[in-house]
Amino acid sequence: MATTKKSPFYICIVSAIAAIAGLLFGFDTGIISGALLFIQKDFVISTTMKELIVSSVLLGAMFGSLAGGYLTDRFGRRRLMLIISALFILGTGIAAFANDVNAILFGRLFIGFAIGMGSYTAPLYIAEIAPFEWRGALVSLNQLAITLGILSSYLINYAFTNKQTTKENRIPI
């Protein structure tokens, strides 16, 4: 495969798109703290089940990170980034449309698997497409995206829980 020099704009856009895996990493890790309040209203769950719901992403991420290197070598960075995207979509769909707690757990395991693979593959992909002079800055986009994902999840949690709390605490007139 012949290497061609890509434009700086192209490299920055592709790096930003790859860093979306980091954004989803942070978002899906942080959003559960607010979502758990709504999950326990819809489903009767014990404290142990809450712990499983929260930690299922971490369990999936552990297995995803273990498989990330092998899968990246087998399928290539770009193709695996597409597979990771599909896993994020699939896991989010399963968790969002869950009829029971087991479906939520299953969806969050998929999300975690995507997080684990993405935490390996996205920075690697960015490093491979980045010119030597920009490599450090562009790879750090992934870490910045994780932080922004956590921040956005907390802001969304605040907005929804604040509205819910305000609604419940209204004094009837």
On the 0 to 100 scale, the average pLDDT is 89
Count of the domains: 1
H/E order of the elements? HHHHHHH
Shape designation: globular
Give the strand content.
Answer: under 5%
Number of helices: 7
Spell out the CATH superfamily: MFS general substrate transporter like domains
* CATH architecture descriptor text: Up-down Bundle
Main pleated sheet: none
The secondary-structure class comes to mainly alpha
In whole angstroms, the N-to-C terminal distance is 73 Å
Describe this structure in words.
The protein has helices at 8-18, 20-30, 32-42, 47-75, 77-96, 101-129, 135-168. The model has no long low-confidence stretch (mean pLDDT 89). By secondary structure, the chain is mostly helical. The protein has one domain (9-157): MFS general substrate transporter like domains (Growth Hormone, Chain: A).
Topology summary:
Layout: H1 8-18, H2 20-30, H3 32-42, H4 47-75, H5 77-96, H6 101-129, H7 135-168
Helix pairs in contact: 1-6, 1-7, 2-6, 2-7, 3-7, 4-5, 4-6, 5-6, 6-7
Key attributes of the depicted protein:
Growth Hormone, Chain: A; 84% helix; 7 helices; mainly alpha; 173 residues
In short:
The chain is mostly helical and 173 residues long. It has 7 helices and no strands.
